[in-house]
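User: Hey, my collaborator sent me this sequence without any context and asked if I could get a structure. I don't really work with proteins. Can you help?
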Amino acid sequence: MAEAVSRHIAFSPPDITEEDISEVVEALRSGWITTGPRTKQFERDLVTFTGAAGVATFSSATAALECALHALGIGPGDEVITSAYTYTASCSCICHVGATPVLCDTAPSSFEMDYDRLPSLVTERTRAIIPVDIAGRMVDYDRLTAALESASSRWKPANAAQARFTRPVIIADGAHSLGATYHGRASGSVADFTAFSFHAVKNLTTAEGGALAWREGAADSDELYHELMLLSLHGQSKDALAKDRAGAWEYDIAFPGYKCNMTDLQAALGLTQLRRYPALMARRHEIIRQYEAGLAALDVETLAHAGDVSGGSFQSSGHLMLTRLKGKSLGFRNQLIERMAAAGVAANVHYKPLPLLTAYRNMGFDIADFPCALAQYENEVTLPLHTLLTDDDVALVLDTLKRAYADLEAEGVR
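Assistant: No problem. I've predicted the 3D structure and written it out in C-alpha cell form, which is a compact way to encode the shape of the chain:
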C-alpha cells in the first residue's frame, strides 16, 4: 500500500502578505486601476533598486523584450542570437518582430551560452543577442562582451539606435535576475537592456508583469521611455493618467502599437513586494545554503549562486535551485520527479532546450546540433525554492529526494 502523503511542498507559490493585499485594496479604492501614479512610482523605485538609467514597465517580460527589439528597429532580415537552453520567451520575441532567431549551444557542463562558439554565429545581419540569466545568476557579461567585440568587424548597425553600439546589442533576458549582482553591479545596469519578469512564480510578483531596464549610455532615456510607452499603448500619445487632467482629452496615434501596459493594481503589489525584496532574497539564499549542505553527500551538482567569475564576484537573486544528477539518465531524472511528487514534494525541470520543442523543430533546429544543452537538460531537476518554505520543509524535500534517489539506484535504474 502506498504511503499516505501528510504534507505537500508546492514548487513555487507566491509570497503574499497582508501589506501586499492592503496596497492593492487601496489602489482599488483610489479609482486608479489602470496605468497611473503607482505604476510610475514602481518604475522610479526600480530605477533606484537596479541602478539603471531608466525603467519602463509592461504586462510581461516577453512584452518588454519585444518592445526592446522594436525600439532598436530590429525586424525582418535581421538576426538575433539567443541560448538554446532557455524558455521560449527568450526566442519567441525574436519571431514576433519578424527577425530570424539563431541559437547558441551551451558550453560543456554549463547553463550559459558557449562564449567561444558565439563569435562564429555573428554575421553582418546580427543585430542583438539575448543572453539568459537562468536561475537568477547573471551570465558572464565580461566574456560575453569580449566574444561579441571579437566579431565587431561584422557589426553593421542599421539605424541610429543601433549605431550607439560597437557590437551587437545585449538585451538580457533577466526574467529571473532582479536583485542579482555581477562584479558589484546590479542586474539592470550591466547589459545594454534587461527585461525582468514579475510573473506569479518569480521572486517578486505583480501576478503578471514585466519591466525593461537600460544602462547609462544605451539610449537617450527620455526618448526611449516615450517610445516604449507608445509601443505599450497602441502608439497613443497620452495614457489615461495624462488624459485625466482637465481639458486634456486630445491625443494622437503615432503608429499602430501594442497593448501591453502595466496597471496600477499590478504596480501596487510590486511596490510592497519591492520594499521587502532584500529580505526575501536573503531568505532564498539561506535555503540555498541548506540545500547545498544537505546535498553534499550525493553525487549531484548544483548551480552556484555566489562566488567569483572573470576577476570579480557575483551573487544571484536565488530564483531556482538547479540540480544535476551526475551520470544519471533522463529516465532516472523523470522517475525521481514522479516519486517525489507521489511523496508530496513538487519538483520541476528548467528547461527543455528549444530544439526539443515542436515550434523550433518546425523552424529547422535539430537537437543534435546542441549536444551540451541536451546533456544539461537530461539529468537536471529543480527543487522547490521559495520564501514560504520553512527549514523543516527544506529538510523534508532533501529527505524525499534522497530516499527516491536511493530507491531508484537499488532498483538498478541508471
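In plain terms: The CA atoms of residues 259 and 387 lie 33 Å apart. You can pass these C-alpha cells on to your collaborator as they are.
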